[in-house]
Design a protein that fits this description.
Structural class: mainly alpha
Radius of gyration: 40 Å
Strand order of the largest sheet: 2-1-3
Number of helices: 5
Order of helices and strands: HHHEEHEH
CATH architecture of the largest domain: Orthogonal Bundle
Bound molecules: zinc ion
Length: 244
């Protein structure tokens, strides 16, 4: 019975390690994807900044064209002043020129504002380019490390799986079936230590009779609530100490 329990505990330990390694292995592609997602986000941000700069530049060019068109109109109207025949026509022309010159004043102010905005846009584009390049470098580095980790995890898991296979074949078939059945229905945990007066798996208090039986180690004792196989940490350690 001591040997049975010992084998089952070792099997449980190996299965725990394998489960850990599996979840580590599964987390690696997710960590990779998160890093790649960050690069994608920064690329999108850079494109947005470049578009903003382009839009601002387009607006600036349009205003420049408006300014030019207005200025040539002003020139034309001014030269027409000498050809008009009536005061009314002259007044109308001067009024038109006044409006155009006022509009041009506004346009010049807007264009100056846009130049400032363009400087700001260019700085943003540059910042985002730098951030993207940095993140790309970091992602490449981390992905290399992650690829190494993955191989490491896979190698460890393969070695443990072999060890587990050897151990499993050494365990009596009926005992192995019991273990497999409990593990399958209890989230992979079939063997647990007693935690004070309670089962370490489900935390339900154990009957004193069961606790006494556990101490004698005459038979495998299972929790009456979760059916997991129980062991007494202290007894095992004392036993091992005596043997040692
Ligand atoms: Zn239990």
């Amino acid at each position: 019975m001591v040997q049975d329990l010992d084998q089952l505990r070792r099997l449980q330990k190996l299965d725990d390690c394998l489960r850990d390694l599996r979840s580590q292995g599964e987390a690696i592609p997710r960590r990779r994807a998160a890093l790649e997602e960050r690069v994608k986000e920064l690329k999108e941000k850079l494109v947005a900044a470049e578009q903003q700069r382009e839009e601002t530049e387009k607006t600036r060019r349009k205003l420049e064209r408006d300014l030019e068109a207005n200025s040539s109109k002003v020139q034309r109207y001014k030269s027409q002043q000498w050809q008009v025949k009536t005061n009314r026509e002259l007044e109308a022309l001067r009024h038109e020129v006044g409006l155009l010159e006022a509009a041009n004043g506004d346009l010049e102010e807007q264009i100056l504002g846009l130049f400032e905005e363009l400087d700001h846009c260019s700085a943003t584009v540059q910042e985002r380019k730098t951030a993207l390049v940095d993140q790309e470098r970091l992602t490449a580095e981390r992905c290399r490390v992650l690829a190494g980790e993955l191989i490491n995890v896979q190698n460890k898991a393969a070695a443990l799986a072999t060890e587990r296979e050897l151990l499993a074949t050494a365990i009596r078939a009926s005992l192995r079936r019991t273990y497999d059945r409990i593990a399958a229905s209890r989230g992979g945990i079939a063997v647990v230590a007693v935690n004070g007066p309670a089962c370490g798996g489900c935390n339900v208090y154990l009957r004193p009779q069961l606790l006494a039986e556990l101490r004698t180690q005459a038979r495998l004792v299972t929790c009456e609530s979760c059916q997991r196989i129980l062991y007494y940490e202290q007894v095992e350690e004392a036993h091992e100490a005596m043997e040692g």
